[in-house]
Write a structure and sequence with these properties.
- The protein is of the alpha+beta class.
- It has a single domain, classed as Cupredoxins -  blue copper proteins (Immunoglobulin-like).
- The strands form 2 sheets. Strands 3-9-8-5-6 form a 5-stranded mixed β-sheet, with no helix packed on it. A 4-stranded mixed β-sheet has the order 2-1-4-7, with no helix packed on it.
- A hairpin with a 6-residue loop joins strand 5 and strand 6.
Length: 127
Amino acid sequence: MRRMMVGLGVLLALGLLLAACGGGGATGEAPGIVIEMGDMYYKPNTLTAKPGQTLQITLDNRGSLEHNFVLYDADGKTVLVEKDAIQPGQKLNLSLKAPDKPGTYQYVCTVPGHKEAGMVGTLTVQP
C-alpha cells in the first residue's frame, strides 16, 4: 500500500511539473532568444521572425572584449536598432520588433575590426 501511495505521489508531482512547463504559447508572449557575443562571433548568427513579430532577446557578452549590437535595414545603411557597450560578463535584454517588410537584415558589432573579423549575423523576416 505504501509503495502505491509513493508511486501516486510521484505521478502527481510529475503531472504538476509538466503542467507548469507546458502551454507557454497560449499566452501570446514571444519566446526568449539568447545571443551569445564572443570574441568575433554571435551565436546564433541567424534568426528568423515573422513581419512585425516582437522578439525578446538577451545579449550575453561571454567574450573578453566589449561588443555592441547594431541591426541595419535591408539597405544595409539605415540603423534600426543600436545597443552600445556591452562589457565582458554583462547581459542586456531588449525587445526587438522585426521589420514589417519580409527580407534579410544584418546585425553586426561595430567596434572597430569586429565586423571585419566575422562578428555578423542575419535576421530573416518571412511571412
